[in-house]
Amino acid sequence: MRPTHLFAAAALSLSTSVAVPVAAAATTTCTAPAPGPWTADPGSAAAPSGPGRPAAPATAARVRAAIRNFVACVNAGDPARPDDLAANPAATLFTVHFITTFMHQDSYAAVPRVLGGLHIDRMRTTEIIAYPDGSFSTEGTYLAYGHKLAHERWNWWPDPDGHLKVNKLEPLAPPVPPDAVSLGVEVGDYYYRPDTPVVRAPGGKVVLRLHQSGAQRHEAILFRLPDGATAADLFDGKLTPGQVTTIGQDNGSDVMSLVALRPGVYTLISFEPGPDGRPLALHGLTAQFRVC
Asked: Using an 8 Å Cβ cutoff, are 214 and 188 in contact?
C-alpha cells in the first residue's frame, strides 16, 4: 500500500459481542519535537530486534502516555493548513523510516497531506511489548475519521529527542459488527468493481472487503463527496478540501469496517501515480456506491 491521501476532512452503536474501542484517558496537550535533520536511524529500520516481553508496569505507563500524546497531536492537526507543520504537530511523531517506507514520502512536510485530516477516537491499547533495542510494540483498536474501526500493531522507536515515534505499522483484522452489511470490491490495476452499486444498510454499518486482482496491490480511500461530484472533481479544482469528507482508508488489511454511514453516495479513490504520473483515479481506479 502507498498511503498518498491528498485531501483533508476530516455514533458508534455495536453489539457487545464485538471488540469495540473504549475511550482512553483524556490528554489536553500535545508535545512534539521540531523536525530536526532528515536522517534515518539505522536501528529503527531493524527494530524490533531481540526477544520481546510484556513491558513492566512503569514502562507500560510511559508508553501509554506517549500514545495519548500521539493521539492528541493527531487530533490537534489542522487539515485546512496541510503545508504548515506547526499546525499539524503529529508529523514529527513518525520516524523517517516510517515516512519513507510506509508513507512513501521524502519529508516531514508531506505527512499532514498523507494523514488527510485523520481523527482518532476511542483508542484502546491492549498489549505493550518491550524489546532489547529500546523499541516497543503495541496492539490496539480505535475509531478513525469517525467511521472506520481500526485494529493495528504499531512499533514505537525512542528517538534521542525523548519522544516515542511510530516506526512501523502492521494491519490486523478489524472488529466487524455482526449486523454489518458486506460489500465485496474487486481491485484491478485500473478499476474498483463493487459487487453491487447499492448497499442496503439502514444501521450504517458496512464492511468493505477488497479483493486485489491486479498485478500489484493498490490503496483504497473512501470519501463522501458533495451530491453529484465525481473523483475527477477532486483533481480539476471544482472541490475544496472542506467539501470532502474522509470516511476511511485501507491500511493493508484489505478490510474496511465502517460504522455510522449516512445514506448517500460514497466514492473510492486511489491517489497512487499511474505510468504517466497522473493519479490512478484518473485512469479508472475509482468507483461509487450508494448506501441506503
From this structure: yes
Query: Measured between alpha carbons, how far is 241 from 258 in angstroms, rounded to an integer?
Result: 22
Query: Given this model, what pLDDT does residue 28 score?
Result: 60
The secondary structure of residue 197, as a DSSP letter, is: S
Give the total residue count for the chain. 292
The answer to whether residue 214 scores a pLDDT higher than 90 is no
Q: In this structure, what are the phi and psi dihedrals at residue 77, rounded to the nearest 5 degrees?
A: -65, 150
198 burial via Cβ count (<10 Å: 0-12, 13-18, 19+): exposed
Backbone angles phi and psi of 147, in degrees to 5:
-140, -30
Confidence class for position 1, pLDDT limits 50, 70, 90? very low
Rounded to two decimals, what is the model's pTM?
0.86
DSSP annotation of 85: G
Strands 286-291 and 198-199, by their bridges, are: parallel
Amino acid at 70: F
> Would the pLDDT of 9 be above 80?
no
Phi–psi pair at 230, nearest 5 degrees: -125, 175
Planar angle of CA 61, 25, 56, nearest 5 degrees? 15
**Whole-number Å distance between alpha carbons of 120 and 262:** 19
CA dihedral for 108, 142, 255, 269, sign (positive or negative) = negative
d(CA 177, CA 188): 27
